[in-house]
Design goal:
The protein is mainly β and 481 residues long. It has 5 helices and 31 strands. The protein binds CU-O-CU linkage and copper (II) ion. The site of copper (II) ion has 5 residues, from loops. CU-O-CU linkage binds next to strand 6 and strand 30.
Length: 481
């Protein structure tokens, strides 16, 4: 069994999937495998082929229909090398992160999912504005039992960077390795030399070097499980290496899949612009802030221009009481090359146009310390009734606040996008960090009918109460049901 699993992992590795390889310095970086193998052009189409994607294996589209992407995805126990030692993990199709689901905007995606875990699970397609029945919410979908299957089928409405993960026992299943990136290509997409998919995570190892058994004991429900080793694409960040050439310009799609750790990113040795976030590309790039805050669950996209040869780095800077603790998440060796170039920005139409709010709601978070710690949403732990009900198409202002200013909370709303009334959060979002000390206002565009989860993405917080819903009525529904 183990040999078979290892065989699959090796197979994926040989396919060129392992992004952050541990090969000796000087060997061919795996980043180029896909590039080489696709150099013959692939499909003919009047549009320029999408940029080569670097970062993880990709799910293979088994359906020849150009409007359909049909794939198989299995969650199972597996073995992976996260930090130099092979350990037990849970994995999608045998790899951590799971394979990238890549589609074009408006394609129909069919995922034949098999649960080979010892416990029920679902798959949530974080950020995709699809129907509630396909969203993986255990309130809507009966979780897939061990040995069971489920076919997820949906049209991907928006271009951008999304991700998938379980939504049952999430704090434990995700921490053990179940997560993967979703890339939805749009038209027009800016013409980059290369795209990199980077999933940032952290992991806590026990004394034997295995993943610490996920727990809700002690202070974990308060702090969330914060890992000591940072991971980039499933490898210890220190092992995440790539290469590039001066003059090239890349698009980095970055996901924070940690249980609890907010990333604060900066780019060194290259020029960067912030070009997109949860809900897709911006209408115009904006300068990279000094520290780019990426809450768990959230995504950012940055443009990286190698204007000088040398070493470029993506760095996570953790504030400590004295100095910042910096960890390199990806190191890129930049060879000498031609003069820098600039990418022309295409006309991007945002997925949702700005429109004024017609209604106001408050969502406030708090915690209670009884025999154990619980978190509450509007005073209630795990409220069963929706926080509010509106008709499809409603635009609402939601004030998110922390009654007890102990922690920042990454608030995530399923199935919808919102804008944040704060220039620090440009673009459309589905996740925003609600600072401990001050409320934040969002304008939510509730265009997708259904019962939608609204929760803290610190997975332990969600598990002990910070999990609520909102209701968006469809055309046939009536208020007050
Ligand atoms: Cu990333 Cu409720 O999910
Ligand atoms: Cu929280």
């Amino acid at each position: 069994m183990q040999i078979i699993t290892l065989g699959i992992v090796m197979f994926l590795f040989l396919l060129g999937g392992c992004s952050t390889d541990e090969a000796a310095p000087g060997s061919t970086p795996s980043s180029n495998h896909r590039h080489d193998s696709s150099a013959d052009g692939g499909t003919t189409s009047e549009t320029k082929p999408a940029a080569t994607l670097w970062g993880a294996p990709e799910l293979t589209d088994e359906n020849p229909d150009p409007d359909v992407v049909e794939v198989h995805l299995t969650a199972a126990k597996g073995r992976a090398t996260l930090d130099g030692k092979e350990i037990d993990v849970l994995a999608y199709n045998g790899s951590v992160p799971g394979p990238i689901l890549r589609a074009k905007q408006h394609q129909t995606v069919i995922v034949h999912f098999t649960n080979q875990l010892a416990e029920p699970t679902t798959v949530h397609w974080h950020g995709l504005r699809i129907s509630e029945a396909m969203d993986g919410s255990p309130v809507i979908q009966t979780p897939v039992p061990p040995g069971g299957t489920f076919t997820y089928s949906f049209m991907v409405p928006d271009a951008g960077s999304f991700w998938y993960h379980p939504h049952v026992n999430t704090y434990a299943q995700l921490a053990r390795g179940l997560y993967g990136a979703i890339v939805v290509e749009g038209a027009p997409d800016p013409a980059y030399d290369l795209e990199r998919s980077l999933i940032l995570d952290d992991v806590l190892f026990d004394a034997d070097g295995n993943i610490s058994p996920p727990t809700l004991d002690g202070l974990v429900p308060l702090t969330g499980r914060v890992g000591k080793v940072l991971l980039t694409n499933g490898k210890a960040a220190a092992r995440a290496k790539a290469s590039a050439t001066k003059g090239k310009v890349e698009r980095w799609r970055i996901v924070n899949s940690a249980n609890a750790r907010t990333m604060r990113l900066l780019l060194e040795g290259a020029k960067g612009r912030l070009i997109g976030a949860d809900g897709g590309l911006f209408t115009a790039p904006v300068p990279l802030p000094e520290r780019l805050v990426l809450p768990v669950g959230g995504r950012v996209e940055i443009e990286v221009s190698y204007d000088t040869a040398g070493t470029a780095r993506l760095v996570n800077a953790v504030p400590t009481s004295s100095v910042e603790e910096k960890t390199t998440m990806l190191e890129v060796a930049v060879a000498d090359g031609p003069a820098p170039r600039t990418i022309a920005w295409p006309t991007i139409t945002p997925a949702v146009a700005e429109r004024p709010a017609v209604d106001d709601f408050d969502i406030s978070f708090d915690y209670q310390q009884g025999s154990s710690i619980t978190w509450t949403v509007n005073g209630e732990s795990n409220p069963k009734e929706p926080l509010f009900t509106v008709a499809k198409g409603a635009t609402v202002k939601i004030t998110l606040s922390n009654a007890s200013a102990v922690m920042d909370h990454p608030f995530h709303l399923h199935g919808q996008f919102f804008r944040v009334n704060d220039p620090a959060w440009p673009g459309l979002r589905d996740t925003v960090l609600v600072p401990a000390a001050k409320p934040i206002e969002i304008i939510a565009y509730l265009d997708n009918p259904g019962m939608w989860m609204a929760h803290c993405h610190i997975l332990e917080h969600a598990e002990v109460g910070m999990m609520a819903h909102i209701m968006v009525l469809g055309d046939g529904d009536t208020m007050g049901h």
